[in-house]
Write a structure and sequence with these properties.
496 residues; alpha+beta; FAD/NAD(P)-binding domain; 8-stranded mixed beta sheet; 23 strands; 24% strand; binds flavin-adenine dinucleotide
Length: 496
C-alpha cells in the first residue's frame, strides 16, 4: 500500500540514511514512498556465524550488514552526538546546521525508544584525560554518545518499521536495485543542479530497475546503499557520469584487551576517540568503535571477511575491544583505495581462511601466534573463529609501524595495552571511497537523484547517516512544493 497519491519517491537501502529519509517524508505527507532493500526483514535477519559461533558461511546477502536497519541493525548502536565524528556531512551543510540535524535525529531515536542516558559529557575528569592524552602525543576528542547496544538497536528499528508501514510506506525487502534510470532533463539550462552543463550531461532520474528486471518509475530516487553498496553506487555514478572524489582508506586491526586496562577511560567517556600521527611516517592513526565489555565479530563484505566489534546492552564480556586504523589518502595516479584495502584484507583471508589473530608479543618477537600461544595469554579471544597467525605477512610495514607506535603511545595513558598478551585481529578495513559530487542538499548532478549515507561517501556512522536522510527528505519536500507552483520551475514531469 502506498501513502496515497503524490510524488513518488524510491529509496534504495533501508539503513539509517534511507529509514530517516522515509520517516521525514512520511511525516510530511503527500508522497508515495517505496523503500527497496536487497536484504531481509529484521525478524528474518540472522547470521549463522554468530548464532552457531562458527565461521562465516558466505551467505549470498550478508544479514549482518544488509536488510531492514542496514549495517545499523546488528551494529553496536552507539549514536555519536558530536558533529566532529562520523563523517563529512558538515562539509555539505555546514557544522552549525549539522549540530541541529544531529539533535533532530537524536530526538527521533528517543521517540522510538532509545535510552535517555548520554555518555561522554565533558566533566573535569574528562578534561584531565584530555590533558594526559596530550602529554602522550595523543589528541583526544571528547564525544557525546547515546548507546543503544545491539539488542536495543533492533527494538528501535522495529518500531520505526511498524510506524512507516502504518503511514503507508511501501517496504520491499529482498529487492536488489540493479540500475538507476535517467533521461535527458526536461527544461534543463535553468535552476536545476546540473549547472556545469558543459561537463555533466543534464539528466534527470525517472526510476530504478531491479535485479529481476522490473522498471519502477519515480519522481525522486534516493540512493542510500551503505558501505556494502558503495561499489555498486560507484559503478552507477561512473555510468551516469557523476564525478567522483577519492576518500582515504582506513586499514588496521581490532585490538582486544582486558576491560580493566581501559576502564578508567571508558567509564568516563564511554568511547575514547584518540588520534596519533605515527613517528616514522606521520600517518594518521585513530581509535574507533570502542566496545567496553564487548565482543569482536566478523563482517562479510561481499565475500571478504573483515573484523569489527560490538557491545551488547545486556551481555558483558571481560574484554574491551576497539579498532586501530591507519588513514591513507592516495595521490595521483592511483584512485582505487577500495581495491587496495580489499587486497590487504584478502591476504588475511588467504592465509587464515578469514580473520587472523595474533598476540602483540608474538608480532613483536617475529612469531606467528598459535592456539597454544594464545592459550598461554591472559586475554581470552571473544571471536572464536579467528585463525592464530602472523599479521606481519599481511599488513605493509608502514601500517604495522604506525599501529605499534600508536599502541606504545596509548600505553602511557592506559598501562597494559602494550602488553604481549594484547590481541590484534586483522584486518579491519573501512572503505569510505568514492565520494560522489553532491550539492548541499545531497543531490547528484542528475536531477532529482539524491545520494546519501555511507555509500555515497558522505557519512561514516549511524547519526550522520540518519541526519543525511533528513537533509535529503527536506530537499525533496521543498522541491515537491516548488513543483506544485506551475511557474516556479521546469522540474521533472512523469513521462511514463
Ligand atoms: C558491525 C558494525 C558495527 C557498527 N557500529 C556502529 C556504531 O556503534 N555506531 C555508529 O555510528 N556506526 C556503527 N557502524 C556503522 C553504521 O552501521 C553505518 O555507518 C550506518 O549503518 C550507515 O548507514 P547507511 O544508511 O548509509 O547504510 P547501511 O546501514 O549500510 O544500509 C545500506 C542498505 O542498503 C542496502 N543495499 C545496498 N545496495 C543495494 C542495492 N543495490 N539494492 C537494494 N538494497 C541495497 C543494504 O542491503 C543495506 O541494508 C557499525 C557497522 C557495523 C557493520
Amino acid at each position: 500500500m502506498h501513502s496515497g497519491s503524490g510524488q513518488r519517491v524510491i529509496i534504495v537501502g533501508a539503513g539509517p540514511a534511507g529509514v530517516f529519509t522515509a520517516l521525514r517524508l512520511a511525516a510530511t505527507g503527500g508522497f508515495q514512498v517505496t523503500i527497496m532493500d536487497k536484504g531481509r526483514d529484521l525478524s528474518h535477519r540472522s547470521c549463522p556465524s554468530i548464532e552457531r559461533n562458527a565461521g562465516c558461511v558466505n551467505c549470498p546477502t550478508c544479514s549482518v550488514i544488509s536488510g531492514w536497519g542496514g549495517a545499523g541493525a546488528f551494529s553496536d548502536g552507539k549514536l555519536t552526538l558530536s558533529p566532529e565524528i562520523g563523517g563529512h556531512l558538515g562539509e555539505y551543510v555546514g557544522q552549525e546546521k549539522l549540530a541541529g540535524l544531529l539533535e533532530e535525529a537524536d530526538r527521533i531515536y528517543l521517540q522510538f525508544g532509545a535510552p535517555p542516558r548520554v555518555y561522554g559529557e565533558v566533566t573535569p575528569e574528562v578534561e584531565e584525560l584530555i590533558r594526559k592524552a596530550r602529554m602522550a602525543d595523543l589528541t583526544m576528542i571528547p564525544t557525546r554518545i547515546r548507546h543503544l547496544g545491539t539488542g536495543y538497536s533492533k527494538q528501535v528499528l522495529a518500531a520505526m518499521e511498524s510506524h512507516l508501514r502504518q503511514l503507508g510506506v511501501d517496504i520491499r525487502m529482498g529487492v536488489e536495485v540493479e540500475s538507476i534510470l535517467s533521461r535527458p532533463a526536461e527544461g534543463h539550462g535553468g535552476s536545476g543542479p546540473a549547472k556545469d552543463a558543459g561537463q555533466v550531461p543534464a539528466e534527470e532520474v525517472w526510476g530504478v530497475r531491479t535485479a529481476k528486471g522490473e522498471e519502477v518509475p519515480a519522481d525522486y530516487v534516493v540512493v542510500a546503499p551503505g558501505r556494502e553498496g558503495a561499489e555498486w553506487l560507484r559503478g552507477e555514478a561512473e555510468r551516469l557520469k557523476i564525478p567522483l572524489a577519492t576518500n582515504p582508506v582506513d586499514i588496521g586491526v581490532r585490538v582486544e584487551t582486558a576491560a580493566e586496562v581501559l576502564e578508567h577511560i571508558t567509564s568516563k567517556v564511554y568511547e575514547a576517540k584518540l588520534i596519533f600521527y605515527s613517528k616514522t611516517f606521520e600517518d594518521k592513526v585513530r581509535t574507533f568503535c570502542m566496545c567496553p565489555h564487548g565482543e569482536v565479530v566478523t563482517e562479510n563484505l561481499d565475500g571478504l571477511i573483515t573484523v569489527n566489534g560490538h557491545s551488547h546492552a545486556e551481555i558483558k564480556t571481560e574484554n574491551t575491544n576497539f579498532a586501530l586504523l591507519v588513514s591513507k589518502t592516495f595521490t595521483q595516479p592511483f584512485k582505487d583505495p577500495i581495491t587496495y584495502g580489499k587486497h590487504i584484507a584478502g591476504l588475511a583471508n588467504l592465509l587464515g581462511g578469514g580473520v587472523l589473530v595474533q598476540r602483540l608479543g608474538d608480532l613483536l618477537t617475529g612469531h606467528r601466534s598459535t592456539e597454544e600461544r594464545i592459550h598461554k595469554g591472559t586475554i581470552r579471544p571473544t571471536l572464536h573463529d579467528a585463525t592464530p597467525g602472523d599479521l606481519s605477512l599481511v599488513l605493509p610495514y608502514r601500517y604495522l609501524q604506525a599501529l605499534v607506535e600508536m599502541l606504545q603511545a596509548l600505553d602511557r595513558i592506559a598501562p597494559g595495552i602494550y602488553s604481549r598478551n594484547t590481541l590484534l585481529y586483522g584486518v579491519e578495513v573501512k572503505f569510505y571511497s568514492s565520494r560522489l559530487q553532491l550539492s548541499a542538499e545531497l543531490e547528484t548532478p542528475v536531477r532529482n537523484l539524491f545520494a546519501t549515507g555511507d555509500g555515497a561517501g558522505v557519512t561514516r556512522g549511524l547519526m550522520q547517516a540518519s541526519a543525511s536522510g533528513l537533509v535529503v527528505a527536506e530537499a525533496i519536500r521543498k522541491r515537491a512544493a516548488l513543483a506544485l507552483l506551475p511557474a516556479a520551475c521546469g522540474h521533472s514531469r512523469d513521462r511514463q
